[in-house]
Amino acid sequence: MDKQIAIVYATGSIMTGKSSGGSFFSADIMGSETTADLIRKARKDKNVKAIVFRVDSGGGSGLASDLILTELKLAQEEDKKPVIISMGSMAASGGYWISCYGDKIFADKSTLTGSIGVFGLVPSVDSLFSKIGINTQKIRKNKFAVQSMFEDLNKDETDFMQMHIDGFYKGFVEKVAAARKKSYEDIDKIAEGRVWAGEDALELGLIDEIGDLNDAVKYAIELAKIDTKSGNYLKIYTKYSEFSFGDMAMKVFADKLDIEVLNKLQGSEIFNLLSNDEKIMMMMPYNIEIK
Predict the structure, then answer these.
(1) pTM given for the model
(2) Annotated catalytic residue: which of 93, 99, 115, 275?
(3) Which CATH class is domain 4-115+194-239?
């Protein structure tokens, strides 16, 4: 078998568990379990010599992000495979977390990236319930017992939560500083949740080069010294199951077409239809014309 480049797609809000496709009522989900499994398959495949990790995410769970990043670092450290990051429209917060250790990071000029920061929310319906005559009382064994949405946080609880958020933020900045080979102070100056466009991110050292997915794949090919004459040098990993129409279509076209044509196909109406998580009961005849 010829040497190959793996393209692993990581799109949507980052959550623990399995990935799911978006719909009118729900957002696209990048599940840590699904995404880590895709990376694991790519890094364990002996034919794959480099991984292009295509990220398009505004972030999500810190835990889920770290589980994904751990698998990417294993690809680099244990399997000795370079990981090239290709950022889509955004790779912010958790999206940047899973990208920061890339051997090289590509982003478009308008890619929203950075957003190195942490926030926490505790919903409270205490005031709302009191207005409609519903009163609640919390009974606990210590002052840091499980928080309830039926009672506002007291000062001790607020301070405790702030301590954890501050600690998580410090860890995020330290992680990025180590990955980008910069000091904590350098990253802290551009962190605190600030979002940067690709050109600014390049100037600040958060990415390495302005470029799209094609540029990332070309770089990976050069790095891994892969012969593209065979026409079978790309291996695509998506969150859809191996029986998905979208996944099968992507694999077929990836084997037959170059990356530029594959990109055009991915943005087409027919590919979006095939990639939909909804069950397709019937399809009318369809002609695909790639210009």
Answers:
(1) 0.75
(2) 93
(3) alpha beta
